[in-house]
Specification:
The protein has 102 residues and is of the alpha+beta class. Helices cover 37% and strands 29% of the residues. The protein contains three helices and five strands, in the order E-H-H-E-E-E-E-H. It starts with 5 loop residues before the first strand and ends with a helix.
Length: 102
């Protein structure tokens, strides 16, 4: 039996969550809470490291999940641990994403 994946949130990803919340809160506090909850809940659904696709712009070793308009970018750290590196608004220029992570 495979042991559960440990999910580590990088400080950049935590900061991204705060910024997303603050931005959406300008229109709706409850809407901001809902989006953040969806992002965090989706990250908890990772059951194995290769569950989601390799990001098409970053390539290996970066993988992505999409929630609403946001990409959760993560990297496999070990067989039992992943690191969430960035939460990126997919409506932005993908070159910006590459510059932030590489």
């Amino acid at each position: 039996m495979q042991k559960p994946i440990k999910i580590i949130w990088d400080n950049n990803a935590k900061e991204d969550l705060k910024l997303i919340f603050e931005f959406i809160k300008l229109k709706s506090h409850q809407g901001a809470r809902n989006v953040i909850k969806e992002i965090v809940d989706q990250s908890k659904r990772i059951h194995y490291a290769e569950q989601y696709q390799v990001d098409e712009f970053l390539g290996e070793p970066f993988r992505r999940m999409i929630i609403r308009d946001y990409k959760i970018i993560y990297k496999i750290h070990s067989e039992s641990e992943i690191r969430i590196l960035q939460i990126f608004d997919s409506r932005q220029n993908t070159i910006k994403l590459r510059q932030m992570l590489l």
